[in-house]
Amino acid sequence: MENSFKDFLSNITLTSDQQEDAQTKYTGVCEKLYKFYYGEGAYDSSKKYLFGSYKTKTNVRPFTEEQDIDVLFKIPEDTFKKYDGYKSNGQCALLQEIKDVLKEKYTTTDKIKAWGKVVLVQFAENHHNVELLPALEKEDGTFLIPNSENGGSWDYFDPRMEIDKFNESNKATSGLTRDLAKMLKAWAHNTPSMSYKSCERMDDIIAFLDANYASGANNIGYDKIVFDFFDYMRSRCNDCIKSYIDKAFNRAQKALEYNDNDKPMEASEEWIKIFGEEFPKTKENSKRENQGVYIQQNPSRPWFGSTKKNRIG
């Protein structure tokens, strides 16, 4: 089953064309904003900061409508002061300004939305969307971001802390953190009615691995590790996802039992129920080897005596 899991990971990993599309999309958005806020000089890519799954490289395919590139754009301090000085909800005004600026570039893009803390640029189906978060970078490397809800405010944001936590775990586990995150993202995509935020899921993955696989898989199969995660979460998850965790646990348990009984085809069917069609289906169960070699008694005189056969092996 381990080869099936490796193929599964390959199936959900972005292609080189998709990776290039992602870079093209977020670079185009940030270049337009850089020109507006910083002038006509050469684009300075340090004014943007990727975070989320495109920073940790835990993004997966196929794409969903909710799958966005999270990118932070660093606004000038003068811009921050301008909107901070508004008597009422300067944060909303900042988001609307960014929306209007991007509409100048993306004239054929139907959906550019500003709400909450972000501006979302939605592109054609099967292409990356960009979720743009404007922010003022502070001296300590953290950020102030606009929140247009409840009259407007500036919220503290520290994406680097989350990225550092992921990188530390991924290094300690020799890449298991990233692999498990990608597989469980595929599970979440295959369970659209479940509300399990990616940031919460990542925190749970890191805590689980720290408690059970702090140094990596160590020759333990992905199937057992995924099963262990669901088992770990059964007593720790919020009530709103408990039924989904239990269902995935039961299916993973059944898959392990099938595999232990030399039924990889049935095992793969259970994993497909969890992860979706990107998990490869085993077409048939291989026949057992060493069924035994039979010889007849008195082979030189087959007509003599009993036809009873002796089994060797």
TrEMBL record:
<keyword id="KW-0051">Antiviral defense</keyword>
<dbReference type="Pfam" id="PF18144">
    <property type="entry name" value="SMODS"/>
</dbReference>
<dbReference type="InterPro" id="IPR006116">
    <property type="entry name" value="NT_2-5OAS_ClassI-CCAase"/>
</dbReference>
<dbReference type="GO" id="GO:0051607">
    <property type="term" value="P:defense response to virus"/>
</dbReference>
<dbReference type="GO" id="GO:0016779">
    <property type="term" value="F:nucleotidyltransferase activity"/>
</dbReference>
<protein>
    <submittedName>
        <fullName>Nucleotidyltransferase</fullName>
    </submittedName>
</protein>
<feature type="region of interest" description="Disordered">
    <location>
        <begin position="283"/>
        <end position="313"/>
    </location>
</feature>
<dbReference type="InterPro" id="IPR043519">
    <property type="entry name" value="NT_sf"/>
</dbReference>
<keyword id="KW-0808">Transferase</keyword>
